[in-house]
Prior knowledge:
By secondary structure, the chain is α/β, with parallel strands linked by helices.
Amino acid sequence: MQQARYFDVSTAQIVPTQEGYDRWAEFYDGDDNPLVTLEEQHIEPLLGEVRGLKLADIGCGTGRQALRLAARGAHVTGLDFSKAMLEKAGSKPGAKTVTFIQHDLTQPFPLETDGFDLVLSCLVLDHIPDLDSFFSELARLCRPTGAIVLSVMHPAMELRGAQARFIDPETGRRIGPASHSHQVSDYVMASLRAGLRLDHISEHIVDDQLAEKSERAKKYLGWPLLLLMKNSHFRS
Protein backbone atom coordinates (compact mmCIF):
# COMPACT_ATOMS: atom_id res chain seq x y z
CA MET A 1 0.00 0.00 0.00
CA GLN A 2 2.37 2.76 -1.19
CA GLN A 3 3.05 5.03 -4.19
CA ALA A 4 -0.01 7.33 -4.18
CA ARG A 5 -1.17 10.04 -6.53
CA TYR A 6 -2.99 13.05 -5.11
CA PHE A 7 -6.04 14.95 -6.25
CA ASP A 8 -9.17 16.90 -5.30
CA VAL A 9 -11.21 14.35 -3.33
CA SER A 10 -14.48 16.01 -4.36
CA THR A 11 -14.04 14.67 -7.90
CA ALA A 12 -13.52 11.01 -6.95
CA GLN A 13 -15.44 7.93 -6.00
CA ILE A 14 -14.17 6.88 -2.56
CA VAL A 15 -14.10 3.10 -2.06
CA PRO A 16 -12.95 0.87 0.83
CA THR A 17 -9.16 0.87 1.07
CA GLN A 18 -8.71 -2.81 0.26
CA GLU A 19 -11.03 -2.63 -2.74
CA GLY A 20 -9.26 0.46 -4.01
CA TYR A 21 -5.81 -1.10 -3.90
CA ASP A 22 -7.06 -4.37 -5.40
CA ARG A 23 -8.37 -2.39 -8.36
CA TRP A 24 -5.20 -0.28 -8.59
CA ALA A 25 -2.69 -3.15 -8.41
CA GLU A 26 -2.36 -3.93 -12.12
CA PHE A 27 -1.02 -0.47 -13.07
CA TYR A 28 0.12 0.80 -9.67
CA ASP A 29 3.87 0.63 -10.27
CA GLY A 30 3.73 2.75 -13.42
CA ASP A 31 2.57 5.97 -11.78
CA ASP A 32 4.61 9.16 -11.75
CA ASN A 33 4.71 9.60 -7.98
CA PRO A 34 6.52 12.55 -6.41
CA LEU A 35 5.81 11.25 -2.89
CA VAL A 36 7.73 8.05 -3.56
CA THR A 37 10.56 9.95 -5.24
CA LEU A 38 10.86 12.26 -2.24
CA GLU A 39 10.75 9.35 0.20
CA GLU A 40 13.53 7.54 -1.64
CA GLN A 41 15.71 10.65 -1.31
CA HIS A 42 15.42 10.78 2.48
CA ILE A 43 14.54 7.39 4.02
CA GLU A 44 17.83 5.56 3.55
CA PRO A 45 19.71 7.07 6.55
CA LEU A 46 16.87 5.95 8.81
CA LEU A 47 17.16 2.34 7.62
CA GLY A 48 20.92 1.88 7.86
CA GLU A 49 22.57 -1.48 7.21
CA VAL A 50 19.93 -4.21 6.91
CA ARG A 51 22.00 -7.28 5.99
CA GLY A 52 21.10 -10.16 8.27
CA LEU A 53 18.25 -8.31 9.98
CA LYS A 54 14.72 -9.66 10.38
CA LEU A 55 12.47 -7.03 8.84
CA ALA A 56 8.68 -6.64 8.80
CA ASP A 57 7.22 -4.46 6.03
CA ILE A 58 3.70 -3.56 7.14
CA GLY A 59 1.62 -2.47 4.16
CA CYS A 60 4.18 -3.73 1.66
CA GLY A 61 1.97 -3.28 -1.40
CA THR A 62 3.67 -4.42 -4.59
CA GLY A 63 6.93 -5.02 -2.74
CA ARG A 64 8.75 -1.74 -3.43
CA GLN A 65 10.66 -1.76 -0.14
CA ALA A 66 10.42 -5.46 0.73
CA LEU A 67 12.14 -6.69 -2.41
CA ARG A 68 14.78 -3.96 -2.38
CA LEU A 69 15.76 -4.65 1.22
CA ALA A 70 15.67 -8.42 0.76
CA ALA A 71 18.13 -7.99 -2.11
CA ARG A 72 20.40 -6.23 0.37
CA GLY A 73 20.38 -9.25 2.68
CA ALA A 74 17.44 -8.64 5.04
CA HIS A 75 15.06 -11.47 5.96
CA VAL A 76 11.78 -9.82 5.03
CA THR A 77 8.15 -10.55 5.86
CA GLY A 78 5.63 -8.35 4.06
CA LEU A 79 2.01 -7.81 5.14
CA ASP A 80 -0.71 -6.17 3.09
CA PHE A 81 -4.49 -6.42 2.98
CA SER A 82 -4.69 -6.28 -0.81
CA LYS A 83 -4.50 -9.71 -2.43
CA ALA A 84 -3.97 -8.19 -5.86
CA MET A 85 -1.07 -6.03 -4.65
CA LEU A 86 0.60 -9.07 -3.09
CA GLU A 87 0.12 -11.08 -6.28
CA LYS A 88 1.90 -8.29 -8.13
CA ALA A 89 4.73 -8.35 -5.58
CA GLY A 90 4.96 -12.12 -5.83
CA SER A 91 5.44 -11.98 -9.60
CA LYS A 92 8.58 -9.84 -9.40
CA PRO A 93 12.23 -11.01 -9.47
CA GLY A 94 13.45 -11.94 -5.99
CA ALA A 95 9.95 -12.48 -4.61
CA LYS A 96 10.77 -16.00 -3.43
CA THR A 97 13.16 -14.54 -0.86
CA VAL A 98 10.30 -12.64 0.84
CA THR A 99 7.42 -14.05 2.89
CA PHE A 100 4.25 -12.27 1.77
CA ILE A 101 1.10 -12.50 3.92
CA GLN A 102 -2.36 -11.12 3.18
CA HIS A 103 -3.85 -9.60 6.32
CA ASP A 104 -6.21 -6.82 7.40
CA LEU A 105 -3.87 -4.17 8.80
CA THR A 106 -6.55 -2.89 11.18
CA GLN A 107 -6.37 -6.23 13.04
CA PRO A 108 -3.55 -7.66 15.22
CA PHE A 109 -0.71 -8.81 13.00
CA PRO A 110 -0.08 -12.56 12.65
CA LEU A 111 3.60 -12.11 13.48
CA GLU A 112 5.66 -12.96 16.55
CA THR A 113 6.21 -10.55 19.44
CA ASP A 114 9.76 -9.13 19.58
CA GLY A 115 10.40 -10.94 16.32
CA PHE A 116 11.93 -8.18 14.18
CA ASP A 117 15.02 -5.98 14.23
CA LEU A 118 13.41 -3.44 11.91
CA VAL A 119 9.72 -2.71 11.39
CA LEU A 120 8.91 -0.64 8.32
CA SER A 121 5.62 0.93 7.24
CA CYS A 122 5.72 3.18 4.20
CA LEU A 123 2.85 5.38 3.01
CA VAL A 124 0.28 3.46 5.02
CA LEU A 125 -0.64 5.50 8.10
CA ASP A 126 -3.18 7.71 6.34
CA HIS A 127 -5.22 4.56 5.59
CA ILE A 128 -5.33 3.48 9.25
CA PRO A 129 -8.35 4.62 11.31
CA ASP A 130 -7.07 3.57 14.77
CA LEU A 131 -3.50 4.79 15.15
CA ASP A 132 -3.18 3.64 18.77
CA SER A 133 -3.84 0.01 17.88
CA PHE A 134 -1.57 0.19 14.85
CA PHE A 135 1.38 1.68 16.74
CA SER A 136 0.88 -0.80 19.57
CA GLU A 137 1.20 -3.63 17.06
CA LEU A 138 4.32 -2.09 15.52
CA ALA A 139 5.83 -1.81 19.01
CA ARG A 140 4.92 -5.42 19.80
CA LEU A 141 6.75 -6.73 16.74
CA CYS A 142 9.88 -4.70 17.33
CA ARG A 143 12.66 -6.18 19.45
CA PRO A 144 13.85 -4.10 22.41
CA THR A 145 17.01 -3.22 20.47
CA GLY A 146 15.20 -2.66 17.17
CA ALA A 147 13.70 0.30 15.34
CA ILE A 148 10.48 1.32 13.60
CA VAL A 149 10.65 3.49 10.48
CA LEU A 150 7.55 5.14 9.00
CA SER A 151 6.72 7.39 6.09
CA VAL A 152 3.39 9.00 5.27
CA MET A 153 1.94 11.72 3.11
CA HIS A 154 2.26 14.95 5.08
CA PRO A 155 -1.08 16.01 6.63
CA ALA A 156 -0.66 19.46 5.06
CA MET A 157 -1.71 17.88 1.78
CA GLU A 158 -5.21 17.58 3.21
CA LEU A 159 -5.40 21.38 3.00
CA ARG A 160 -4.97 20.96 -0.74
CA GLY A 161 -7.81 18.41 -0.88
CA ALA A 162 -5.36 15.65 -1.68
CA GLN A 163 -5.34 11.93 -1.02
CA ALA A 164 -4.35 8.71 -2.79
CA ARG A 165 -6.18 8.06 -6.07
CA PHE A 166 -6.01 6.45 -9.47
CA ILE A 167 -7.95 6.67 -12.71
CA ASP A 168 -9.87 3.51 -13.60
CA PRO A 169 -8.76 2.69 -17.16
CA GLU A 170 -12.11 1.08 -17.98
CA THR A 171 -14.40 3.87 -16.81
CA GLY A 172 -12.10 6.91 -16.69
CA ARG A 173 -13.34 7.66 -13.16
CA ARG A 174 -11.05 8.84 -10.39
CA ILE A 175 -11.04 6.25 -7.59
CA GLY A 176 -9.80 7.00 -4.08
CA PRO A 177 -9.03 4.23 -1.57
CA ALA A 178 -10.51 5.42 1.74
CA SER A 179 -8.13 7.53 3.85
CA HIS A 180 -8.37 9.07 7.31
CA SER A 181 -7.60 12.55 8.55
CA HIS A 182 -4.61 12.61 10.94
CA GLN A 183 -2.28 15.39 12.02
CA VAL A 184 1.45 15.23 12.74
CA SER A 185 0.67 15.35 16.45
CA ASP A 186 -1.62 12.33 16.08
CA TYR A 187 1.24 10.23 14.75
CA VAL A 188 3.66 11.44 17.42
CA MET A 189 1.26 10.94 20.31
CA ALA A 190 0.17 7.50 19.10
CA SER A 191 3.80 6.40 19.06
CA LEU A 192 4.36 7.73 22.59
CA ARG A 193 1.20 6.07 23.89
CA ALA A 194 2.52 2.80 22.46
CA GLY A 195 5.54 3.15 24.75
CA LEU A 196 7.93 4.17 22.01
CA ARG A 197 10.64 6.79 21.94
CA LEU A 198 10.71 9.30 19.08
CA ASP A 199 14.22 9.18 17.62
CA HIS A 200 13.59 11.13 14.44
CA ILE A 201 10.89 13.22 12.79
CA SER A 202 11.30 15.29 9.65
CA GLU A 203 9.13 17.05 7.10
CA HIS A 204 10.11 17.31 3.45
CA ILE A 205 8.82 19.79 0.90
CA VAL A 206 8.42 19.78 -2.84
CA ASP A 207 11.44 21.72 -4.10
CA ASP A 208 12.57 22.74 -7.59
CA GLN A 209 14.60 19.55 -8.00
CA LEU A 210 11.59 17.32 -7.31
CA ALA A 211 9.34 19.45 -9.52
CA GLU A 212 11.77 18.93 -12.39
CA LYS A 213 11.55 15.15 -11.94
CA SER A 214 7.76 14.95 -11.56
CA GLU A 215 5.20 16.94 -13.48
CA ARG A 216 2.62 16.21 -10.76
CA ALA A 217 4.83 17.75 -8.09
CA LYS A 218 4.85 21.22 -9.65
CA LYS A 219 1.53 22.39 -8.25
CA TYR A 220 2.73 21.53 -4.72
CA LEU A 221 6.00 23.46 -4.98
CA GLY A 222 7.00 24.70 -1.52
CA TRP A 223 4.46 22.52 0.28
CA PRO A 224 5.39 19.77 2.76
CA LEU A 225 4.64 16.46 1.03
CA LEU A 226 6.36 13.82 3.16
CA LEU A 227 6.60 13.06 6.88
CA LEU A 228 9.26 10.63 8.16
CA MET A 229 9.50 9.14 11.67
CA LYS A 230 11.78 6.70 13.44
CA ASN A 231 10.86 5.15 16.79
CA SER A 232 12.43 2.69 19.20
CA HIS A 233 11.76 1.25 22.62
CA PHE A 234 12.95 3.16 25.66
CA ARG A 235 16.07 1.52 27.03
CA SER A 236 17.38 1.70 30.58
